[in-house]
Structures are given as C-alpha cells and as structure tokens.
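Possible race condition, two jobs.
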Amino acid sequence: MHTLVARTLILASVVLLASCASTQDFGEQVSAEGKTLQELGDRWQEGRSLSIKGEKLVAEGRKQAEKGRAKIREGEALAAEGNALVRANREAYVRQSELSGLAESPRDVAKEAKALDEISEDWDDGLDLVKKGEKRVAEGNKLLHRAEKQISDGQSMMERGQTLMQTSEEAYQKRKEAARED
C-alpha cells in the first residue's frame, strides 16, 4: 500500500509538472501580453510617423507644383513678349525696307543702315526672349512632374500609415473585447 501511495504521488507530481511546463505562469503571460501590446503600440506609432511624413511630402509637393506652374506662366509670358517683339520688328523691317534705297547722301545711307541694325537687334532680342520663355516652361514642367510624383508618394505613405494605425487599433480592440469575455 505504501508503494501504491508513493507511485500515485509520483505520477501526480509528474502530471502536475508536465502541465506546469506546458503552460505559462502568470509572469510569463503578463510579459507575453505586454510584448504583444508593445508591438501593437509600435506599429501604431510607425503608422502615425508614416502618415505625418506623407502629409509633409504632400504639402512640399504642392508648394513645388505651384512653383512649377509659376515658372510655366513666367515662361509663357516671356515667349509671348518675345513673339510680339519679333512680329513688331518684322513689320518694322518691311516698312524700313520699303524706305530703303531712297537715300540721297551717305548720311541717309548711314541712317537707313542704323535703322535696319536697330531692327535686327530688337528682332534678336525677341528671339532670345522666346528661347528664355521656352526654357522656363520646360523647367516648370520638369518641376511640376517631380512635384506630382512627390504628392503621389506622400499620399501612398499616408495611406500605408493610416492602414497600420487602423489595423493596430482593431487588433487592440479585439484583445480588449476578448479580455472582457474572459
């Protein structure tokens, strides 16, 4: 009988030890829950950080887009001014060429030459303005394209951040509800 009791105690001890070994004690459970909650909090913070960075990227992209549009407007204005100058000097050349050839003295010839030279310089100035305007428009378009990409990247970053925050909050709420049910 004594051996039966001893065997029973040994068997009970083994079963009890096995059950203790397979389950976590209170400290381990709290630690595991703490780690899980910390991970949820870290994920939420990462999402918030992404969202804030995305908002800043979008805001900066919008500023850059406005700068690009301003350069395009400037360039278009320069090109228009240059085209107007070219047209005006073409017309001035036609008028001056109609008067040319009527000189009666070397002085008159010099005046005609000077007038044509001034028209030529103004015409060149107009062509230069057109080139500057076209260059400014190209710069503006390039800036606008980069800004649109920046805005798109920022919006994607905001969406990823908001998704991380939302999934973290949902997981936390589920844990709270499960804890209430226990």
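Job #2 (started ~2 s after job #1):
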Amino acid sequence: MFPLKELKRSLLVSVWFAFLTFPIMVIKVDPIERTVLWRWDNMAFVAIGSFILSILIKVWFVRKERRSGRKKASKVLTEPFTQRILREPRFLYPLSLGVLIFALLFPLPFFYLPDQYYDYRPDVCGSWVGVKYRGWCRRIA
C-alpha cells in the first residue's frame, strides 16, 4: 500500500516525536524523595502511537486526494466564502474597518475600570503603592 520511503518517513517522525517528548513523558523527578523515575514504557507508547498516527494521516491524505480528483472530474468546485470576501472590495473594506475599530476600542473598557481592586495602603499589601488585588490584599469596599 505504501512505498518503503513513506514508512521510513513515518518511522523518522515517530523517533523524532519520542525524542522531543522525552523530558516530559519519560523522566519524573520527585524532589521530596530525591528520586528520578524513568518511565520508558511511556516513550514506547509515544513512538508507537505517533508512528500509527502518521500512517493514518498519510492514508487519509491519499484518500482525500483520490476523492478530490473524482470531484474535480465530475463538477467545477465553487469558490469558498472567505475567498470571495477577501477578493471583493465591497465586503473586504467594511470588514477591515470593523476589525480595525474593534481592535482600537477593545482595550478602552479595561483602562476605565473602577479602582476598587487596587489597595493603595502600604501597610496592607507591602511597600508597593497601587498593588493590584490578587487575593492576598484586602479589597476596599
């Protein structure tokens, strides 16, 4: 079904993915007990799972290519809605203006929030003035 080249690529992908996830999936350090636990079975699971997933993705792409070839032969594909919006100025300009206005106005409500979450008393929150409330300062009512 697959050429040997594709199987080699999938094997390389699985080895590389196992290498990248090695510190997270294999090594477990317990600083209280001062022990290091090596979980090699997790690395094997990651390698096998990524190999199988890589093969399945390649099978899916081959099937998708075959189906799209049949669809192209049977009918002409229509243009996606997003491409039509980006191509036509009557849609693009109002959308761009709306996104620009939203991006400019979005931060404003956060600048004008009431100062009820700030405590300016240094005896409550330490020596800083205007420390933001994070749960360890008293909230001023």
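Helices lie at 4-20, 22-25, 40-74, 81-87, 89-105, 108-111, 122-125.
Logs attached separately.
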